Fold:
Amino acid sequence: MSEPIRFVMVGGFLGAGKTTLISRLAAAYQSQGLHVGIVTNDQAAGLVDTRLLESQGYDVNEVAGSCFCCNFDGLVDAMQAFGNRQRPDVILAEPVGSCTDLIATIAIPMAEQLGQQFTHSPYAVVLKPSHGKKILAGSEGGGFSPKAEYIFRKQLEESEIVVLNRIDELPADEVRTLRTQIQTEYPGRRIIGLSAKTGENLDELIDALDSDAAPINETMQVDYDEYAEGEAELGWLNATAQFRSSKPIALDRLAEELVSRMQIELLTAGAEPAHLKILCQAGDATAMANLVSSDTPATLSVASDAAASEIQLLVNARVAAAPEVLEPLTRKTLEQIASNRGAECQVADLACFRPGRPVPTHRVQR
Structure:
């Protein structure tokens, strides 16, 4: 009988750095000679994370159209599909960033229905410092309404491990304050400070994930009305577009420029971004820029050092704004940047909506 597959689920709010961390973990496991499968998740097709991880050479399956908890069978199918290519030793799963209650809807049903096929690592939740500092301090204007903050806090509540990300960008006193706040409000969680960007302290997290999840004697209580209302406050946009120009355009600069311009437009509209990602591809070259809050700068998270006259774009925006605000704002930004560069922009696909009410496939109450 084959050894069970280690199942590692990494949650956390939109913009916490989950995809960067999962890429780091995948590379680390591969360096140990293990085969890794990654399952990404989104409310709609056209996910930047999937395209980025594929460009890095990873074996990726995507569950699109609903969160893991509302499409348990889709998650199982995505995991089993890896076996058609090569059976993985480790599966890394990244749920939608606005999703919570994953122990009751994913971890326990998996254990009950799939038996000894999987070994579950402790559930790790990545803390997003830019909003976490405000929310945990109880600051006014934490970026989102109390209903959206409810999801943020519930994610921390159900964690076994809290990953305090971006410690390379935070002053030491802010790291200490965040640790104290987490320990006070969510006692018993293991707190690991690391940088997904640089890999600092990644070994400590891998060591923690190599242990088994604790027995679950009691599941978290969740108000699904408040959960649904919190998710519905976010406008969700996935778009695919193409830039064509008579002169080569630098992919890195284009990605940064698009995100920076959208940040200005969102500030003007009074719309707080939970996460904005723009990926630019031409041939084998990939560049990505992102934004995680209104008061942090746009960041080029993946550089290509390449230029091309035809560039494929993917835009993923999760913003506290109505779809009727977010969609025209995005189209306007794409058209403006294209015009400034003497380029033509053609939007091939665009989906903009508010997430529907979460209805779990299975939910175990203990």
Q: What stands out?
A: The chain has a mean pLDDT of 95. The first helix runs from residue 18 to 31.
